[in-house]
Design brief:
With 250 residues, the chain is an alpha+beta fold. The chain has helices spanning 3-12, 131-139, 146-150, 161-170, 184-206; strands at 23-25, 42-46, 49-53, 58-73, 76-79, 90-94, 97-109, 230-234, 239-243. 23% of the residues lie in helices and 24% in strands. The chain is elongated, with a radius of gyration of 19 Å. Bound molecules: zinc ion. The site of zinc ion has 7 residues, from loops. Residues 222, 224-225, 227, 244, 246-247 line the site of zinc ion.
Length: 250
């Protein structure tokens, strides 16, 4: 789940606001019974987190590499980025539907206002996203490969591997280029592309047309120059990069 999918999920789950949790199940080790009979105050996303705020505490779900969710909201099914059928980590049932969280980390936050503890200036989907702050944070890591920087949740909260690959292709930057070898104008362009693409990701994901709009992620031929797309694990994060060895400059 990348940030835009969680931003969408938080909106799709809005009908559970003001509803009471009627039953709780799942294989999580946290004390899930405390959610029983509690009323949902609000649901929001930050980066790759989905937060359900109750009166006295909040439930924070962190979707790791392949975490996802399923929900039924007033008889309509919703799904996250991956389909999963095994036992949910946590399932909450309401009078108007249910939420199932899979393959993720769930944790209680002991606060009546979890939203106040998050820095939305680094959340790629937030209207408060601060591109100048991202620019400064990136240049303070001169020796780091740019593909690793894009996955840094302290700089680009919500950016995952799909967004990383697509924006590097759009900005014509090789994933293994170090920050110190990227010019300020290239970096400004990359940051702008990342924000722009994340908003498009949201729009396409909402309309179920994300895959057909991807240019480089899991593609075999570069749509710009016809070169065979290269796939390799890059950087210290060792995540797969999909890139064009010809039009993405090293
Ligand atoms: Zn190319």
């Amino acid at each position: 789940m990348e940030g835009p999918s969680l931003y969408l999920a938080a909106r799709q789950l809005k009908p559970f606001r003001g509803k009471t949790v009627l039953s709780v199940s799942g294989n999580t080790k946290i004390e899930k019974e405390r959610i029983l009979n509690k009323e949902v105050k609000t649901i929001f996303s930050w980066g790759k987190h989905l937060i359900i705020q109750f009166d006295e505490f909040a439930l924070r779900t962190h979707f790791l590499l392949f975490g996802t969710f399923e929900a039924t909201v007033i008889d309509s099914p919703l799904t996250g980025d991956y389909r999963r059928s095994y036992t949910p980590r946590l399932q909450l049932d309401f009078e108007n539907g249910s939420i199932k969280l899979f393959n993720c980390s769930v944790k209680f936050l002991e606060t009546r206002n979890a939203k106040a503890s998050y820095d939305f200036t680094i959340d790629i989907m937030s209207p408060r996203w601060d591109s100048d702050k991202a620019f400064d944070s990136i240049y303070s890591n001169p020796g780091v490969e740019i593909a690793d920087i894009l996955l840094d949740q302290e700089i680009f909260a919500g950016v995952g591997n799909i967004i990383k690959n697509e924006v590097l292709w759009r900005a014509r930057i090789h994933p293994e280029r170090k920050v110190k070898n990227i010019t300020p104008s290239e970096l400004k362009n990359l940051i702008a592309e990342t924000k722009k693409f994340s908003l498009l990701f949201y729009k396409w994901r909402k309309a179920f047309v994300l895959r057909k709009h991807l240019d480089i992620y899991q593609k075999s031929i570069c749509p710009r120059c016809g070169t065979k797309v290269e796939r390799k694990k890059t950087g210290k994060r060792n995540r797969i990069s999909h890139f064009c060895p010809v039009c993405q400059m090293t």
